[in-house]
Amino acid sequence: MLLLLAFALAVSGLAMGVIDTISNLQLVKIYQKDSTVFLQALHFFVGLGALVSPLIADPFLSETSCVIGNSTTNATSLRHLRNKLAGRHVHNVSSVHLHTDGEVVTNVSYAFWIMAIINLPVPIGILILMYRERLFTCGSDPSRRLLDGDVLAMKTWGTTRLSEDTGHQKETSRSHVDLFSCCLLGNVHSFPLSFFGIHILGGLVLFFSDGIVGSYTGFVYTYAVAPPMNLPHKTAGYLTCVFWAAITVGRLSAIPLSYRFKPVHLLIISQVGVIVTLLLLLIFSNSSVFLFISTCCLGLFISSIFPCMLAFTEDVLEYKGCATTVMVTSAGMGEMLLQVIVGSVMHNQGSFSFLLCGMIFGCLGFAFFILLFFVQQSHKNSTEGASTL
């Protein structure tokens, strides 16, 4: 069963990675200068899903053993294992034996069925889009393409660039065929060094910011129930919900803010807010009340870094598309690797290292963002100088 679960999670993660990359890439290429607003809306729904999913699963989770047998032994073993995973005695967890003989009474499968039904409209919508795109050979109207509707919508939306430059339409249609042409080795000589520096630094910024999101979500409960906090398990469980609720609210509020402010300004505010919040967490590390307040503040500030960084870098690089794929991949790597690092450090050094790791990651992300800001200025000057020649 464990191998089947690992395989299912691997397939699910692979599919979600593809969806994440393509959705961000397409929004950037379609809306370009206005992509910040749509990226904020996209990631708002990502945060909303991460908030709602645990709430759907919670009624189906058992406080005791999921198997009816020797109920006293099962409940005792479950509590013993929960205390170990909470960070009190994390050594030799394999010594805990959970009895699996008896009648299975868990209803957790209902949560998976509910989430599957909620997600069912997504593949249906994709099939409809594929039909309109004439990707199916039978029954489609060859005279109509989905991109024609996009061009008409852009006209009614107030885009005047289509009437000014008809050659831009040809370049856009060509980009769907040759999507990653900017990354081909044959074109390396045509790009300045700052072009690659922006990709690397932007990826590192998202590596650490999404790594903070993943590690904070994964280990704030463990930190809260361990000394010196010693919060009750149920109270500590609300921290993850508060964090994702703050991220969702932050991305929702960033949608109107994206109309009034440039992505770089929102990025500066977000990065400074993350550093200040993590620093205050270290200072007031013994306050359970401030832990909830800082969790909310951290979610608000870190929420818009991902969409704003995509819009900012693609704007600097003139929407060639490769930056989005690099940054989405870097963010996923950070969310994966930094959780492993934080878990290992907490295992060896104790729960306080959770806050220290977060502060280190936040400072590294801020430092790479400062470097990115100066590199993009250099890139802008070099491209403007080349265009005047």
TrEMBL record:
GO terms for molecular function: transmembrane transporter activity. The chain crosses the membrane at residues 110-131, 200-224, 236-254, 266-284, 290-312, 324-346, 352-375. It is found in: Membrane. Keywords: Membrane, Signal, Transmembrane, Transmembrane helix. Its main location: membrane. It comes from the Eukaryota. It is a multi-pass membrane protein. Residues 1-17 form the signal peptide. One of its GO terms (cellular component) is membrane. Belongs to the major facilitator superfamily. PANTHER family: MAJOR FACILITATOR SUPERFAMILY DOMAIN-CONTAINING PROTEIN 4A, SODIUM-DEPENDENT GLUCOSE TRANSPORTER 1. This is Major facilitator superfamily domain-containing protein 4A. It comes from Cyprinus carpio carpio.
